[in-house]
Structures are given as structure tokens and as C-alpha cells.
Amino acid sequence: MPEQTQMFIRLALTGDVQMTPNKDGLFTADQVAVLAAKRYCNIHKVEDYSIDIKCKVRGEWKPAKIMATDKGLWSPVEIFTACIKAAGKKVYVVGPDTKLSNPFRGDLRLNEGLIASIVGAAGVNPYLTRAAQYQVCHREGIPDFWQGPKENLFQAHIRDRFPEYSGQIRVKAAAGDWTLPMLMVMCQSRKAAKSSDYRKSLYALSEAGLIELTMGGRYGIGTATFDWLEPAYLQPPPSRLDAVDDEAMATLEALSG
User: Fold this and answer.
1) Does 73 share its domain with 111?
2) Same domain (yes/no): 78, 141
3) Per-residue pLDDT tens for 124-135?
4) How many CA atoms, within 13 angstroms, populate the side-chain half-sphere of residue 206?
5) Which of 1, 42, 183, 215 is paired with 136 by a 20 to 30 Å CA distance?
6) Residue 54 forms beta bridges with which residues?
7) Residue 243 included in any domain
8) Domain tally for the chain?
């Protein structure tokens, strides 16, 4: 085994690496080694603009290459994508032409494109490719996974987005809508933790530095909560003038006129 590979394996095993990405959300080669190891991949060659990895699949080592975003820096999307593909699994690419359907974009200012890219690179489909159904509601004797004393973002999304919502067990969703794991992530609903895709999404977003994940008690991810971190938000809009400033501007315009 190459000496460089042994060094990176030691780093991954000891966990002696600070895993926070830089201000642009990019990772160093040492950090890539840890992220790859979590996906059963080993680094075999590091260059300024690429990293060669190998992933063990059914006893056979599969090669892959992670291309750098900048010299010596790699994006989480490229890292996750290379590892998932090396393992022979499907990756869902969210490109610039992907229709974004976040109805809360104006309020929460979340960077849906970035979030969906991370989720897709983790092997979870963020958008429906055809019409489907959400099992979201409850009826007498059949509790749902988000039932609670107060309406949360998920319930508000369902109520506002789907007019037919009136206590049905299922609500129809169109092609291009969020998949259920993506819906749970965007609306911060932790009641869908039985979904492996939801758990994979949370882990990937946490590793990418977009959320701060707080594990629950003995159930771990099953009762985990999370908060969005600054990199997950779009650039905040310019602050609007308050009423006093508006009045002053109107006075100036009147005087200048």
C-alpha cells in the first residue's frame, strides 16, 4: 500500500482532522480522506487538482477520481458524488436547469439549489421525476409522523401547496415537487427518521457544513434535531428603509421637485 495512502488512512481512523470546510464550503485533502473513509473509500493519489480514490465493493476495489474546485480544495458535491459512483450507486445531479420549487425561498432564504445538490450527491433524489403521493395526514386511530400540538412548516407546506388537503392519508404530488426526504429536510421535520434517505440527507448536509446536527437520546438520528447554518442561506436581501427614512426621502423628493 502506498505510503501516502497509509498516511491518509491513519488520519481518517484517528479523526485528528478539523472537519469544518473553509468559507467557500471547500475541503482540504486531509478532510477529503476522512469523508471518503466514512464511505468506505481510500485515497490513493493526491494532486493539486484531483484525488484518486478506491472504494471496496463486494470484495473488489473500484477506482474513482475527485476533481478539485480550486487548487488543493474540493467541494462536498464532488467528494460525495465520486464515492457514491465508485460504490456503484446512483447520484442525482442538480444542475442550473433544475426547476426549484421551494415555496419558502422568500421567507427562509435557504439556498435550495445547494441543499438539493448535496442531497443528490449523497444518493438521495431531491425532486420527483413523475407524479407520486405523500402519506402525510392522519385519520382517527392512525397517527401520522408529524402530528403535534402546533402546525409546523411541513404541515403549512402541505396545506398551502395542495388544496385537496383535508384529512386524507395521501396527498398527490406532481413531477418536479420535492421528494418526501427533501420535503422533510426543507421543513425541518424530524418525524420521518425511519426513512434511510432522510438520515443520509442529514448526515451529508452536516458533513458539508450546512446544518448543525444535534443527536437525540438513545435513538440517535431518530430523534435528532438540526439548525441551518449560515452557508445554507442565500445572500440576504438589502435592508429596506424604515418608515422614518421613507418619509425623509419623500420630503427630499418634494423639495427637489
Assistant:
1) no
2) no
3) 999 988 888 777
4) 15
5) 215
6) 42, 63
7) no
8) 2
